[in-house]
């Protein structure tokens, strides 16, 4: 992958060095991208020309993406909670029904009367 950096003349990742190409790019393996991006390397030469402000934009973009993921996770968790609440309510109804049946089955029969 091609990465760019405004000030770098070379870079290294994973113990390998990568020289700056004639077009100003650094050709690096995909597994080195995250490591180098942490040091200000970017995938767009226009962003490299912008300098340090790019990091702020990238951080804001990353934060926005993380917020969207968190919202999606919240929607899923909320749906799961709602489904569990419905199941809980259904179980409570079943328990109440079984208690009523048990009480009816163990209640004294008024037709038989009491023995003395």
Brief write-up:
With 116 residues, the protein is an alpha+beta fold.
How would you describe this protein?
The chain is an alpha+beta fold and 116 residues long. The protein has two domains: 1-51; 66-106. Helix content is 56%, strand content 12%. A hairpin with a 2-residue loop joins strand 2 (10-13) and strand 3. The mean pLDDT is 86.
Which terms summarize this structure?
2 domains, two-stranded antiparallel ribbon, 4 strands, alpha+beta
Helicity, in percent? Answer: 55-70%
Walk across the major sheet and give the strand order. Answer: 1-4
Low-confidence stretches: none
What does the radius of gyration come to? 33 Å
- Terminal CA distance reads 97 Å
Largest sheet: 2 strands, antiparallel
- How many independent structural domains? 2
- Average pLDDT across residues? 86
Number of strands: 4
Q: H/E series, N to C?
A: EEEEHHH
Class by alpha and beta content: alpha+beta
| Binned strand content | 5-15%
Number of helices: 3
Q: Which helices and strands appear, and what pairs or packs with what?
A:
Elements: E1 2-4, E2 10-13, E3 16-19, E4 25-27, H1 33-37, H2 45-50, H3 53-106
Antiparallel strand pairs: 1-4, 2-3
């Amino acid at each position: 992958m091609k990465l760019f950096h405004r000030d770098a003349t070379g870079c290294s990742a994973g113990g390998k060095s990568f020289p700056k190409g004639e077009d100003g790019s650094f050709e690096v393996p995909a597994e080195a991208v995250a490591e180098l991006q942490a040091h200000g390397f970017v995938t767009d030469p226009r962003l490299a020309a912008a300098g340090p402000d790019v990091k702020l934009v990238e951080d804001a973009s990353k934060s926005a993406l993380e917020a969207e993921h968190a919202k999606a996770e919240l929607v899923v968790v909320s749906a799961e909670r709602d489904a569990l609440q419905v199941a809980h309510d259904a179980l409570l109804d079943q328990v109440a029904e079984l208690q009523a049946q048990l009480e009816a089955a163990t209640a004294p029969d008024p037709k038989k009367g009491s023995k003395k």
